Amino acid sequence: AADKESSPPPEECLQLLSRATQVFREEYILKQDLAREEIQRRVKLLREQKKKQVEDLDCCREERKSLREMAERLADKYEEAKEKQEDIVNRMKKVLRSFHSQLPVLSDSEKDMKKELQTIQEQLRHLGNAIKQVKMKKDYQQSKMEKGNSPQKP
């Protein structure tokens, strides 16, 4: 009988329960909703960043492929030019030996040919340097791509 007298009336219990429910909604559920919205916003942002990074990676791969193809073409041109130079040099040596036995001094055409050979040799040197630069760029990009891919490996 003493317990019944000390317990609050049902209306007061209902008010207390309603207030507790209201506090729970305000303090916990609303904060959880805000946290969920923030997490969803962050997930969306991260997905967009990932998409951009994947696009950038694809672009780098295409550029690397293009550089490789260009390096191969330059190497082929270099080899062709080198072979042509060797042929011309051999022909010139033959011509020079032939003329040298007949003439004590170089003729104008021989002087012109000598200048042409020197020009070709200079061009080959420049092509060689260009190929070295392209190879260095290719190796640099390849190492960058490998470094970029290594943390993502499972």
Automatic annotation (TrEMBL):
A Gene Ontology MF term for this entry? structural constituent of nuclear pore
**Compartments reported by the entry:** Nucleus, Nuclear pore complex
**Which UniProt keywords are given for this protein, alphabetically ordered?**
mRNA transport, Nuclear pore complex, Nucleus, Protein transport, Translocation, Transport
Cite the record's Basic and acidic residues compositional bias ranges: 136-147
Tell me which Gene Ontology terms the entry assigns under biological process. mRNA export from nucleus; protein import into nucleus; ribosomal large subunit export from nucleus; ribosomal small subunit export from nucleus
Family matches, as Pfam families: Nup88 (PF10168)
Taken from the UniProt entry, a GO cellular component term is: nuclear pore
Location of the region described as Disordered in the Swiss-Prot/TrEMBL record = 135-154
Presence of the UniProt keyword Transport in the record: yes
What protein name does the entry list?
NUP88
Lineage of the species this protein comes from: Eukaryota, Metazoa, Chordata, Craniata, Vertebrata
